[in-house]
Amino acid sequence: MLHIKIIDPDGSISTLEAPADCGIGKSRQNEIRLANWRIAQDHARLMTTPSGIMIQCLGAYGGVSVNGERIDVHAGPLHRHDLIGIGPYRLQVAPLVSDSEPVAATRSARSASSAHNGAATSEQNSPTETGTTLMPAGALVLHATANPAQRELEFEWRRRLHAELLQTMDLRRHDVSAMSDQQLRHDTDALIRQIMVSRDADIPSELDRDLLRQQVLNEAIGLGPLEDLLADDQVSEIMVNRYDEIYVERAGRLHRHPLVFTGERAVLGVIERIVAPLGRRIDESSPMVDARLKDGSRVNAIIAPLALKGATLTIRKFARRKLTADDLARAGSISAAMAEFLRICVVGRKNIVVSGGTGSGKTTLLNILSNFIPDHERVITVEDAAELKLHHAHLISLEARPANVEGKGAVTIRDLVRNTLRMRPDRIVVGECRGAEALDMLQAMNTGHEGSLTTLHANTPRDGLARLETMVLMAGMDLPLQAIREQISSAVDIIVQQTRFACGTRMVTSITEITGMESGKILLQELFRFASQGVDSKAGKVRGYFTGCDLVPTFYDELRAAGITPDLSIFKPDVTLASAPRDMA
């Protein structure tokens, strides 16, 4: 939390507490609302970073000033006594609880970046270390903190300490490839401490020793500026558009991050460090790659010549702890009745397809549904890049493999789905159906592998059926449309629609049952839905309520015969208002 002191145009003073990441402007969506004709709807944003509190100007006509100096884009870290000018208002900001304050002078990120271009360019032309897992020098973040002279000094000492670290590890013949990550981090940190102690008299007193040591450590064995973002639980997605342009997603909204890389080679070093342990490659002949981090976070990278602005990196993070249906219900992303019904469907071995748009939370929901599978069953997961985290004792996880340098050796999801049929699975969970594997998935559902789960991209349940038909046609079997629809209607029992609204909220908006076919058309009946009532003008979030549709699933008698008796009252219409949901994906 931040402590904000506001000096009004008439000289009166008021104080308030605001979140660590908050907006400033006239809009009701902002945590700090300032009412004046010179204030834009969304004027500025305060952000708390590992370096301190930063302020971002959102392009308002009146701009933002710090201590009387107008900023370009970012400024900070802010000192407790720095005076922020926004229209006729003056603000002072400080952490609610703070043991220390940043000392660095306030400057904009753009001025710091432009002043440092020469050093970054010379660093990119230096030789790289090969034969180790160390990242190249210069793969470090530029903080929008200091004046050009101090920034130059910080960069120079990071470069010196990094070079000395590599030389020391080489002289001591450290076999970094044989070390665990924890051991490598511990040993490298100890070496950096020793080097800094020996150079203590030379290191300028105005440089923060602890921050400098952490930056060199992240540069050597980490992911540079991404380290702090990956550790921030409020960040759900990280987007590196180019080396000096980083965006993050918090609570479903995109924000420009004030930290940047030193150069293009630094971004390439991070990408290489991510994909190399997975046996994947990225170069001019193969300029796109899908990968994952050790925590399961999804990674996509694309480099020149396809990426015109430079190497682009996108990381979709996943929650550190195991999410449950109760977590989604508490967050307002699903009702308790809907969650209970889905649990019954999984236990009752119903085939379920989770449908939704990009970033709507399909994989998160699929993971939760998969953990409803009874522990004694044999589960096989098939994914393009392994993301699912199932906690079953009898679990086999399969991952597709891209082609090698010669264009050979590729193993597709369809190949893996076919192979799972020979592995005696009780349940098959396909991370996502994107193409011809949809036909093999439907055949598995129709040939004794009930209770299988998968996801696909679609905006509505009806659109999901159309996409399934298209993907089956991609298999090249030249099947008539009638036969494909019969396969789908007999294989799929439930379609769960996941939606991401414009405000960033993710919700299960529909649970629909496939009831059969009539006159060549697949019949659907909606069992649950989210009834939207527009957007809450105060919270800026979609509002509405979850309700049953007063219809009982056609397989109710089948569930009862299996000893599963759902409460029929959960299907009744419910007008209980849904609380403003928080972002769970």
Descriptive overview:
The chain is of the alpha+beta class and 585 residues long. A hairpin with a 2-residue loop joins strand 14 and strand 15 (245-250). The longest helix has 24 residues, at 148-171. The chain is globular.
Structural class: alpha+beta
Alpha-carbon distance between the termini? 23 Å
Q: Describe the biggest sheet?
A: 10 strands, mixed
Task: Round the mean pLDDT to the nearest integer and report it.
Answer: 79
What is the number of strand segments? 30
Neighbour order of strands in the largest sheet: 23-22-24-25-21-26-27-28-29-30
Note the total helix count: 15
Fraction of residues in helix: 25-40%
Low-pLDDT parts are: 98-146, 576-585
How does the overall form come out from the CA principal axes?
globular
How big a fraction of the residues is strand? Answer: 25-35%
Q: Please give the radius of gyration in angstroms.
A: 27 Å
List the helices and strands and how they pair.
Elements: E1 2-7, E2 13-18, E3 22-25, E4 32-33, E5 44-49, E6 52-57, E7 65-66, E8 69-70, E9 74-76, E10 84-86, E11 89-95, E12 107-108, H1 109-115, H2 117-124, E13 141-142, H3 148-171, H4 181-198, H5 209-221, H6 226-231, E14 235-242, E15 245-250, E16 253-257, E17 260-261, H7 264-275, E18 288-292, E19 298-302, E20 312-316, H8 325-330, H9 336-347, E21 352-356, H10 362-370, E22 379-383, E23 395-399, H11 413-420, E24 427-430, H12 437-446, E25 453-457, H13 461-473, H14 481-491, E26 494-500, E27 506-518, E28 521-535, E29 542-548, H15 556-561, E30 577-578
Parallel strand pairs: 3-4, 21-25, 21-26, 22-23, 22-24, 24-25
Antiparallel strand pairs: 1-2, 1-11, 3-5, 5-6, 6-9, 7-8, 7-10, 9-12, 10-11, 13-17, 14-15, 14-20, 15-16, 18-19, 19-20, 26-27, 27-28, 28-29, 29-30
Helix pairs in contact: 3-4, 3-5, 4-5, 11-12, 12-14, 13-14
